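Quick bug: 3-oxoacyl-[acyl-carrier protein] reductase output formatted oddly.
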Amino acid sequence: MTTQISKVAIVTGASRGIGAVIARQLAREGFAVAVNYASSATEASALVVELRQAGHRAIAIKADVANADDVRRMFDETETQLGKVDVLINNAGILKVMPLAQHTDELFDQTFNIHARGTFNTLREAATRLNAGGRIVNFSSSTVGMNLPGYAVYIASKAAVESLTQVFAKEMRGRNITVNAVAPGPVATDLFLHGKSEEQIQTFARMPPLERLAQPEDISRVVAFLVGPDSAWVNGQILRVNGGLV
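Here's what came back:
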């Protein structure tokens, strides 16, 4: 009897929020999952325990995606413990809303380091280390199409992710690797809800024609589609997953 080898996925920023839900979804669909985290060690460990108890293969790896050496080590550890990587999900992110004029140099750098540099670092590593036929899903944001006041630096960093996605898809020619991005609207996670009043939350919930906030599962199901066989002809695209918001 032969043992079927599962495909391997790295999910960055996967200790909580959308990333944790994506990790659970991919594990259920048969992937061995590397749960990347930057600081939330307790949550990442708990998620790995949960996945293993459900019969899945999973590991937690601390790595700062903005650090090229950390990213290289993340791929090394994943290959050693789970196998060569088939899927990369670039989910790590931060969101701090304030007028452009009030941004500090440090906040600007942090935002671009995690979103733009982090995506660049992982794509550069994936270029030579991802299995042929692999899948990459980056994370943008529907705010790129909305140009909301207070989101200028965040939007600029996510616009960079969209450009990296579309060019990198073309640079992967010959390896049968698809590169796409999802661009969610407001999602009911701690990242979005933190610091907002109930009135502000309800205002965002009423904005899409479907009149609700997204749930993390709304996003994870789209990611699962993009890494699955049914999306083989979807490449270099930005999917606005936002209930018709923009």
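Actually, after a second look the formatting is fine. The mean pLDDT is 96. Closing.
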